[in-house]
Amino acid sequence: MSEQDLVDNVEEVPLSEEGEIDAEQETTPPAEPMNIQEKIKSLKDAIKKSRWNVFLLLGVSLVMFGFALFPLTMSVPYDDLWGTSEKDIGYVWGPSSPGEDFLDVPFQLEVEIVRAPSVADNVTLEVYVLKAKDCLDLSVSDLEVIARGGNSHNNQFKSLESPLEGETYTFDFDLDMGHYCTKVQFVDSKGETLKQNTKLSVKGKLWPNQVVTGLPGIVFLGLSIFAFIGSQKKSAKLKSILEKRKVSEEQLILEAVSAEKIAQGPAGPPQSADGPTGPPQSNPGPSGSPQEHKKSGPPQSMISQDSTTSKRSGPPPTSSTEQVEVQNQEMPESANTDQSTFEPAGNGYFYRKMPDGTYEQVIYVQSADGTYVPYQQ
């Protein structure tokens, strides 16, 4: 037979069923503990990821709110020659549609009256926000007329009559996306600009990112709240699993301790009773010969007659001592026939240990012939 045939025969020999079962038992780990460990590990990883998501989303939302809530500030210079404060705001971005809506970009002007006109009557403070690329363009005058009409959202106008020197007034506007310029001036009742002995200090604030970053900030804040709630739920689930596992481990420990105590049995033989410490004390006998006493009573012949007449018929009754001796003789025989052992308890006393490990609640003493008999007081 060739080596190839031997190899084929070896490969064709099937494994025994016992071998397959043993291999499966060796390679198959206990499923339930591993599942619990994997579940705990997966929950810990998920909680860690959820907390990182909370911090990440909360940080992004704070950055978004920072861009949305902090405005772009500007200063509008005052021209003493023309008596006006003019500035090109620039391009205002935002997702607002044409017309007034909640997506408009807020714009605020703070006008401080440093020096009011000397004319006391009919002085008006006019403020314009015009949708134009150049405030010096000639078409701006036409836009001012449109703005004073009050029907255009692209060109807005606000005014204040009889402003007081030293006071600061605030004007709010809502702008659509586009290029704007602003203009502030004093006019009289005829609409002419008052430029003599006047001075204004104008500052502006623009929130172009309030909508662009504010809405995403709200979305990220909501996502961070949902991530926090999910993290709390997973933490509560992990806590319940760990508590159940702790309770089961405590139960197993208690059951093991109780089973060990039951297997050990009693801690030792019953406590020994205090027996006699020695032989009974001997009573002292008479110290001398008995004293002679005069006899009294009936004659000796009568005593002898009475003693002869008081004879009993039948065998004598057995005494209690004889019964105790018979019992003592029977008990050692029965004690020696089984497999019980006698353990010394001290002072010449013994306890009988039964084959099942229990102790008989009887005190034994060892007789002269080596047998064990119950102790009798």
What attributes characterize this protein structure?
single chain; 377 residues; alpha+beta; five-stranded antiparallel β-sheet; four-stranded antiparallel β-sheet; 13 strands
3D structure, described in words:
The protein is an alpha+beta fold and 377 residues long. 41% of the residues lie in helices and 23% in strands. The strands form three sheets. It has a five-stranded antiparallel beta sheet, covered by helices on one side. A four-stranded antiparallel beta sheet has the order 1-9-4-7. Strand 10 (341-346) and strand 11 form a beta hairpin. Helix 3 (31-69) packs antiparallel against helix 6 (214-264). The radius of gyration is 60 Å and the shape is rod-shaped. Mean pLDDT is 75; it is low at 10-31 and 292-336.
Overall geometry = rod-shaped
Give the proportion of residues in helices.
40-55%
Based on secondary structure, the structural category is alpha+beta
Order of helices and strands: HHHEEEEEHEEEEHHHHEEEE
- Trace the largest sheet across and list its strands: 2-3-8-5-6
For the largest beta-sheet, the strand count, sense and barrel status come to: 5 strands, antiparallel
Q: What distance lies between the first and last C-alpha atoms, to the nearest angstrom?
A: 93 Å
- How many alpha or pi helices? 8
Residue windows where pLDDT falls under 50 for at least 5 positions: 10-31, 292-336
Rg over alpha carbons = 60 Å
Overall pLDDT level: 75
How large a portion of the residues is in β-strands, by DSSP E? 15-25%
Quaternary status: single chain
Number of strands: 13
